[in-house]
Description:
Blueprint: H1 3-21, H2 32-57, H3 65-73, E1 75-82, E2 88-93, E3 99-104, E4 109-113, E5 115-117, E6 124-126, E7 134-135, E8 142-147, E9 154-159, E10 163-168, E11 174-179, E12 185-190, E13 196-201, E14 206-210, E15 216-220, E16 228-233, E17 239-244, E18 248-253, E19 258-264, E20 270-275, E21 281-286, E22 291-295, E23 301-306, E24 313-318, E25 325-330, E26 334-339, E27 345-350, E28 356-361, E29 368-372, E30 376-382
Antiparallel strand pairs: 1-30, 2-3, 3-4, 4-7, 5-6, 8-9, 9-10, 10-11, 12-13, 13-14, 14-15, 16-17, 17-18, 18-19, 20-21, 21-22, 22-23, 24-25, 25-26, 26-27, 28-29, 29-30
WD repeats: 135-177, 178-219, 221-262, 263-304, 306-348, 349-380
GO molecular function, one term: U6 snRNA binding
Pfam families: WD40
Amino acid sequence: MNSEGQLEKAHEEEEEVVSEEIQYPFYTEGPIELLDARIDTANYSLVKAAERLQRELDYENHMDEAEILNQAGNLVLDRSEIGDDRPLSACSFSYDGNFLATCSFTGLAKLWSMPLPNNNKHSIVNHSIVNHSILKAHTERATDVTFSPVSNHILATASADRTAKLWNADNGLLLQTFQGHLDRLARIAFHPSGEYLATTSFDKTWRLWDIHTGAGLLLQEDGHSKSVYGIDFHKDGSLAASCGLDSLARVWDLRTGTSLLALQGHVKPVLGVNFSPNGYHLATCGEDNTCRVWDLRNNNECLYIIPAHSNVISQVKFEPEEGSYLVTASFDMTAKVWSARDFMPLKTLRGHEARVTGLDIRSEDGCIATVSHDRMINLWRTAGQIDDLALDFMDPGF
């Protein structure tokens, strides 16, 4: 081969290498309703981002961070209740904190009346509402439950039966059934507007649904090479974060449908993901027993690695008002509270006798609920706010 032929072959080989390195985005065709949802999300996020920035400037309305951390460090076990006949999967506080929803391997979801603080921060009063319910939600085990962020009456459940369902929590009426996943569901999350629901599945996808019509708006097929497990929305509503058994977490722009960040660092499956209310921190957790905090302002930089537990971490959540601390739940039978300032431990919550599978934090008073495979619901509250009231549950026969 002459020199001219060798040069041409070299150019061809170089072009082949370059073409292999270029990764073009993969798009799934979506309905016109998806375009409308993207526009609505963009408009919603602009308003919410402005409100968040204003709150950050309005320091006098913020509770002193030192006081918040002090309260978190003084959490004690308030009360325990048997939640079901089989292991519990997840829990969620209602929008106003009046109720706690739980779900279990029985396929049932249950609503519990919650004691709430009155004007005296050192006492608790029980705001009893008679409309409690058992939701005969699914034919297989329920994997997640969550209340709408804007309504006390709307509740969603997910299941190994490959469906998610939307319920009226007042009367137990089934509002929507979301079908389309090809394998069991893992977690679900409401968009902060309350208009959309995200579902994750072992079919390696996550989906976005319109809660009013039940229509599937988005099928996100790429992004994860294994099962997608966790999902969360940025508080402004512009971003979503997913995580999966491929040890990866991703941040998505809901306004354009693009993947903004691929967060790599976990060495085993990632099970939980949660945005901080501050707007720029994201926490992930998983089977490598660590919780990682990422700074979204610095691309995919891991800000801190918390060697949090001696076993799998099943869930992580920031305190929902200020993001002053975060809580992790683990298969080591504990939940732990960490300062979001320096990520030092504040409190270890011991009381379960099996793996802790779910947690939630109530905005009103920082009460933490944990659920476990020991079938117990544990409520943790700051010492001094304890009374002898029990969780109130009643089955009206739905």
